[in-house]
Amino acid sequence: MHCELTRAATDFINKFPQRAGGLAGTLPLRRLSAEFSAHEFSATEQPNITTTSFRNITGFRNIIDARQLNGERQQVDDAIAKADTLIEAMGWIRSFRGKTTVIKLGGSLLEDTAAIHHLLLDVIFMETVGMKPVIVHGGGPSINRAMDEAKITPVWVKGRRMTDEATLKIVEKTLAGEVNQGLADEIERLGGRAVNLNFANGTNVLYGEKLLLADDDGTPLDLGYVGQVTRVDRAVIENLAHANQVPVIPSMCIDEHGQKYNVNADTAAMAVAEALGAEKLIFLSDVNGVRRDKHKPETIIHSLTAAEAEQLIADKVIDAGMIPKIEACLSTLKRGVRKVHIIDGRLRHSLLLEIYTTSGVGTEIVQQRKPMSLPASAT
After folding, report:
1. CA 201, CA 203: separation in Å to the nearest integer?
2. Which of 33, 235, 288, 363 is the most buried (most CB within 10 A)?
3. What angle do CA 42, 48, 49 make, to 5 degrees?
């Protein structure tokens, strides 16, 4: 019967477009079926509709009504699912209200416009619901491009860019200028409030000294103008955060003599998190976290204690480039930061998923694991 009714409706619309053509696009389904039921046909305009079809036109109307009802029910179900997500998030929002989270941005992520867009939206959301996000960023790819244009070949030693005077000027112009200003401007464009803290506007907050490293046999290495942070102007950052603005900090520092230095963005973020006594330090990476098998994303370990992380290093589950990052995380935990996260910044809204959901999407590292205690609305 359904097929017959469908054919009848199709016949009507095809044969009499002047009467039915506008109905499907402009009228609710209930009214469309009523128009079809009430139509009086002349002797010269009989569509191919059987007596049985007319007898069952109420069934046709019921089919349309049922489809409309199912669509409305799906919309309600979708809305309920969204509300459930908000209820789950509410407990975490309450728990982290007023807490500081330091977010390290850098590397290839800064080249991914879509990823940065969603990450900065997440940052704005965090600030809106009462968290105090602070961004510390590098600028690797942009600096590399600027050096290529200047015909300067980058040299790396122990993961740090050797920085002579010419390179330092490029780093300051690109990292502390263009990238820093660009991130702050994008936050403003998306509806948030941000302040870029750099040398150009006289609001630098990172102070330090020349970094001294040695090679494997103890010989001192001269990396040029590469520094390490020894002091953070905590008051400036906290005042901005309390004024509901997002501080955006480039990974450069200045010493007591006014000499500027290029600083590794990971270590700069660690220094800021430690100085602020942050609740969380989040490293945005291009991997989803610590994995039992580094080649298989599905083997991610969502939660680790410091002792468990050290054992994974000893067992060589954590190896290569991930070791320095994990060791830096462990050092940060010892200095008072409560939790360190490693997440894949390319995942849409990864910050919100890691912070405001029960399962998270990356790896969380803590000094010691406490008994599971979820916020009331998250249980």
Report:
1. 6
2. 363
3. 85
Reduced to 3 states (helix: H, G, I; strand: E, B; else coil), residue 373 is coil
Question: Could you tell me the CA-to-CA distances from 152 to 34, 250, 309, 327 in Å, in that order?
Answer: 77, 22, 39, 32
Supply 161's token pair.
């860019």
Q: Six-digit token pair at 29?
A: 């389904």
Query: What is the Cα–Cα distance from 138 to 106, expressed in whole angstroms?
Result: 5
The three-state secondary structure class of 101 is strand
Neighbours of 208 (CB within 10 A): 23
Distance (Å, rounded) from C-alpha 51 to C-alpha 296? 64
- Residues forming beta bridges with residue 232, ordered by sequence position: 206
Give me the residues paired with residue 340 across strands: 281, 365
Distance CA 136, CA 104 (A): 5
Residue 271 to residue 253: CA distance in whole angstroms: 11
> Which tokens sit at 151?
């015909």
CA–CA dist 351, 92 (Å, integer): 13
pLDDT digits (tens, 9 = 90+) for 52-73: 555 555 666 666 666 777 777 8
User: What is the per-residue DSSP string for 11-49?
Assistant: HHHHH-HHHHTTHHHHS-HHHHHHHHHHPPPPTT---S-
**pLDDT tens, residue by residue, 356-378:** 888 789 999 999 887 655 555 54
